[in-house]
Write a structure and sequence with these properties.
Layout lengths: L1 E9 L2 E7 L4 E6 L5 H10 L17 E8 L2 H10 L7 E8 L5 E5 L2 E3 L1 H11 E2 L12 H12 L2 H48 L5 H13 L1 H16 L5 H15 L6 H28 L4 H21 L4 H67 L6 E12 L2 E10 L7 E2 H4 L2 H15 L7 E5 L7 H14 L5 E4 L3 H4 L4 E10 L2 E8 L2 H13 L5 H12 L1
Parallel strand pairs: 3-13, 3-14, 8-12, 12-13
Antiparallel strand pairs: 1-2, 1-4, 4-5, 5-6, 6-7, 9-10, 10-11, 14-15
Helix pairs in contact: 4-11, 5-11, 6-10, 7-9, 8-9, 11-13, 13-14, 16-17
Length: 550
């Protein structure tokens, strides 16, 4: 509940503090005194956007602060999700500077407006879950019926199944799109894959073939060079190897006379052995090189195929070509397997849909059970608040499966016993909507723990006994909920547990708004003025005294 509201520098409010009771709080005052301004200030700490034009003093900043006493269990998940400190009393503060910059705090921790708006839904029923405009919306109407059913576990079970069903539907749609796209490309991808598979290149084959072709096309030149080298090493008139052998022998003969010669003899021996090995390798390589016109033609054809495929796929190596082949194989295989995956998903979807329809039918039954008593109670309350000819009818018709069941729920209204029921949004006036909302709230409050309820001039268009009955309903609501109501009706004001009077006064040449909690005698006088004018008659005072005492 809202324990205290502090407003500084907002509109025509310089500074005021209001301590609210936990029951029925009534706010009265002359038109233009600032009652709705007070609600505008309150809306700032509930996440509404700020307008710097509302600053009372343009040189300072506007500060609105609310102290709320809450049950921790109701907001624990929100505070845990946003990593905020949770205390039994929440201090929500909003600051607006003259430049338009706005800051919000929860227990002195900065929060953004979306977080503030989300939190306000747990704290105050003002322009949120159950406001008059919402009454015209089908989703709100469904939530009203579900609140009366008051079996959240049934809806939760359905919603969990719906989430899985929705996931499968999305996956199914995704796979269907993939299949359609894959089918368009399948034939072409399969053609490319068949072409690569027919070519059947091995790892590094194109590079190896290119090297082989270089050898084959220059075989004669290579053999001539190798033969010449081998001849000079081994078979010339004075072969290089023979000359080295002779040099080694000559130096060996002198090795006993010069101490450095044995090392040179050893080096010549090493060189001789190395050159002899080179000559043997040249002979081996030479023997392996043969000019083969048929092989040249074969390698030419193979490399031509390879280079054509490299160019076609825009790559440069055999390894890249093999990667493309592997990718094409995966894509073709995936496309061929999609039908099997789709079949499995379609089976799962059908099974989930069957289970959902069963759960939805159970929810429909629960809702249908609540409709007759709900219509009866609402219509009785409508008569009580001065609309004896008005009737509400709840239409529940089957529809497609959706997040909250398969029911289309529509509140139909007939203001004149014409039996011509039509959707509320088409036929109900503003005053009728306000009173209808009050009736619905009073019934919903018996099933659901609503937050602080705020009614801004819900008495529009009524007076006398109807206004008194509105006061009775508000008083009943206040037994289990904090209710704050702005009213012009003395019959409603008389039901207050705490009566606040909004007034204007002049301070330092400026008109400003003030609020004070009235004593019993002040209440009687204020209500008497509402009944008969600024100077109430004795009869008005007596009537007011009776209203306050009843």
């Amino acid at each position: 509940m809202l324990q205290k509201l502090t407003v500084k520098n907002y509109a025509i409010i310089d500074h005021l503090e209001v301590d609210f009771s936990g029951s029925l709080n009534i706010i009265t005052g002359e038109t233009g005194a600032g009652k709705s301004i007070l609600m505008g200030a309150l809306s700032l700490i509930l996440g509404e956007r700020a307008d710097p034009g509302v600053l009372f003093d343009k040189t300072g900043k506007c500060v609105v602060e609310g102290a709320f006493k809450v049950k921790k269990a109701l907001v624990a998940e929100f505070f845990q999700q946003h990593e905020l400190d949770l205390e039994e009393v929440l201090i929500i503060r909003r600051e607006v500077s003259a430049s338009g910059k706005s800051r919000a705090f929860v227990n002195d921790t900065p929060v953004n407006l979306s977080q503030l708006a989300e939190l306000s839904g747990y704290l105050v029923d003002l322009h949120q879950q159950f406001d008059t405009l919402e009454l015209e919306k089908s989703d709100f109407q469904r939530r009203v019926v579900d609140a009366l059913v008051n079996k959240p576990e049934a809806l939760q079970q359905y919603q969990q199944s719906w989430q899985r069903y929705s996931q499968v539907q999305r996956k199914l749609k995704q796979l269907q799109d993939q299949r359609d796209s894959a089918n368009k490309e399948l034939d072409y991808n399969k053609f490319l894959l068949d072409e690569l598979e027919d070519a059947a290149f091995a790892e590094n084959e194109i590079e190896n073939l290119d090297a082989e072709l270089q050898v084959l096309t220059h075989a004669e030149e290579i053999k001539n060079t190798l033969n010449k080298a081998c001849f000079q090493l081994k078979e010339d008139e004075q072969p290089i190897l023979q000359q080295l052998k002779q040099l080694q022998s000559g130096l060996q003969a002198m090795a006993g006379y010069q101490q450095e010669l044995p090392a040179l003899v050893a080096r010549l021996q090493s060189s001789y052995l190395e050159l002899q090995d080179v000559a043997d390798e040249i002979e081996r390589i030479n023997d392996g090189i043969q000019y083969d016109a048929a092989r040249i033609e074969q390698v030419n054809e193979r490399t031509a195929t390879g280079y054509r495929l490299l160019k076609k796929h825009g790559v440069h190596t055999t390894a890249e070509l093999l990667n493309i082949k592997a990718d094409l194989s995966t894509r073709v295989e995936s496309a061929l397997n999609l039908d099997e995956q789709l079949l499995e998903l379609e089976k799962e979807q059908a099974s989930l849909q069957q289970a959902l329809e069963k759960l939805a039918a159970g929810i429909t039954t629960l809702r249908m059970q609540q409709v007759p008593p709900f219509e009866k109670k609402v219509n009785a309350l409508l008569a009580q608040v001065g609309m004896p000819n008005a009737r509400l009818k709840v239409s529940i018709t089957p529809g497609a499966l959706q997040a909250n069941g398969q029911d289309n729920i529509e509140f139909l209204f007939d203001a004149n016993k014409s039996e011509q029921f039509a959707p509320i949004r088409k036929v109900a006036s503003g005053g009728e909507l306000s009173r209808l909302m009050l009736c619905i709230k009073s019934l919903v409050a018996q099933s659901v723990a609503l937050p602080t309820l705020i009614f801004d001039e819900i008495d529009t268009g009524i007076s006398g006994e109807a206004a008194r009955q509105v006061g009775v309903i508000l008083k009943d609501l206040a037994h289990a909920h904090q209710v704050i109501c702005i009213t012009h009706q003395p019959q409603i004001a008389g039901k207050a547990d705490a009566h606040y009077f909004v007034y204007k006064e002049t301070r330092s040449g400026k008109v400003t708004t003030g609020v004070r909690l009235l004593t019993t005698e002040e209440r009687i006088n204020a209500i008497a003025q509402m009944l008969s004018g600024e100077k109430p008659t004795a009869a008005a005072l007596e009537n007011a005294r009776e209203m306050v005492g009843s």
